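Exercise 3.2. Students should predict the tertiary structure of the chain below and write it as structure tokens, then compare their answer with the key that follows.

Predict this chain's 3D structure.
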Amino acid sequence: MLIPVQCEFLALDGLTQLLNTIRMIQNKQKHNRKTLTIEGVLLTMLDTRSNIGYEVINEVKTYFKEKVFKTIIPRNVKCSAAPSYGLPVTEFSPKSKGSLSYQNLAREMVELSE
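Answer key:
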């Protein structure tokens, strides 16, 4: 499971609820060979102009440690606009910060899976 987390404090409440749900599922799967596992946590929608986002990053990294991807997706107008054109940001605006961040994430995920 990949968990995206917005770099905002309210997202931490949702993350707590999600973790409780994951634990319940894992407890029910104890005897199964396949269990739900967290592969990584993706920090998203970081507003680099605000300190709050960086505080959330620190909280998430403190709890999840090495499970947090190094790539952080910034808040980006092109990322927000792309879906209204029916396109992924990597096609809508390939050189935008958001697009480049998603490309970095893809590389990071491939490297981790090798």
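Discussion points: The chain has a mean pLDDT of 93. Residues 9-28 form the longest helix (20 residues).
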